[in-house]
């Protein structure tokens, strides 16, 4: 399975009149890792907007060094971004990309939501995820690669769902091809990064929170119960604890860094 690049370009042209990111497309059937391929192209002076797309990865990467299962029939995209964000704000790129992609899919009537911090969920199942990698110079991000994996027709684990199966069961055929899905993801990344750079993190974060499936969830932290009330501008999960050890002290507010707690899937099942 391989994408039709001309058809993909046609969908991108239909998506909006002006492209904020000048996408330079490199389409493959199989690569080891789309993120790694973009980094290799960047060493050959590839410009921001350099995009690698594949339908299979042999060494896909997930968050925190995990392996990302990337069987044939999925959509795997990575885009090179130029930014001057502070290194401590690197998660803003992930928040922006997640919101942008979800927003574009929701416009097609696909009820995708965000599971903190970087997963896309559909009916409580994992539809895809985002991996952002950065290079830092003098405490600023000089380059970033945003990688996205979406389940299209590929096999998925029990906690996952692919878009083709969901559309069949929901009798919704809004996304009719892999090329259309790829264009939607790219335009979503573009929209999110544009919102972050032009409107700022506070506006972007308010939009991200509107699609966050975890708001109001209860979490167990060291045998105490807290409630998810938000996400900070650097991507930390804001949890309000329900109890305090002292009656005279307000229950504490806890801020958890990405990767320190697993919120799980299948919430709606």
Overview of the molecule:
This protein has 269 residues and is α+β, with helices and mostly antiparallel strands. It folds into two domains: 5-210, Bira Bifunctional Protein, Domain 2 (BirA Bifunctional Protein, domain 2); 218-256, no CATH class. It contains six helices and 13 strands. Strands 1-3-5-9-8-7-6 form a seven-stranded mixed beta sheet, with helices on both faces. The longest helix is centred in the last third of the chain and has 22 residues, at 178-199. The chain is globular, with a radius of gyration of 19 Å. The protein starts with a helix and ends in a 13-residue tail after the last strand.
Strand order of the largest sheet: 1-3-5-9-8-7-6
Distance between the termini: 32 Å
Which geometry do the CA atoms define? globular
CATH C-level category of the largest domain: Alpha Beta
Beta-strand percent range: 25-35%
Number of strands: 13
CATH architectural grouping of the largest domain? 2-Layer Sandwich
The overall pLDDT average reads 89
Fill in the CATH topology of the largest domain.
BirA Bifunctional Protein, domain 2
Structural domain count: 2
Outline the biggest β-sheet: 7 strands, mixed
């Amino acid at each position: 399975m391989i994408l039709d690049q001309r058809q993909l370009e046609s969908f991108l042209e239909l998506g909006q009149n002006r492209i904020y990111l000048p996408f330079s497309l490199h389409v493959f059937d199989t690569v080891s890792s789309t993120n790694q391929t973009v980094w290799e192209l960047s060493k050959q002076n590839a410009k921001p907007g350099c995009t690698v797309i594949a339908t299979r990865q042999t060494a896909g990467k997930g968050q925190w060094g995990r392996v990302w299962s990337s069987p044939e029939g999925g959509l795997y995209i990575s885009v090179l971004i130029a930014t001057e964000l502070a290194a401590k704000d690197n998660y803003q790129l992930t928040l922006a990309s997640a919101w942008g992609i979800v927003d574009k899919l929701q416009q097609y009537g696909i009820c995708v939501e965000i599971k903190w911090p970087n997963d896309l969920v559909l009916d409580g199942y994992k539809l895809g995820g985002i991996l952002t990698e950065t290079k830092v110079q003098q405490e600023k991000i000089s380059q970033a690669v945003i990688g996205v994996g979406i389940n299209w027709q590929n096999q998925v684990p029990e906690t996952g769902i692919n878009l083709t199966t969901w559309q069949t069961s929901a009798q919704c055929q809004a996304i009719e091809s892999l090329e259309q899905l790829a264009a939607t993801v790219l335009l979503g990344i573009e929209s999110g990064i544009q919102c972050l750079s032009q409107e700022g993190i506070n506006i972007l974060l308010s939009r991200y929170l509107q699609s966050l499936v975890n708001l109001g969830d209860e979490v167990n932290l060291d045998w105490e119960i807290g409630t998810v009330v938000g996400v900070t501008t650097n991507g930390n999960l804001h949890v309000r604890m329900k109890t305090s050890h002292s009656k005279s002290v307000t229950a504490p507010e806890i801020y958890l860094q990405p990767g320190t707690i697993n919120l799980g899937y299948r919430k709606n099942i």
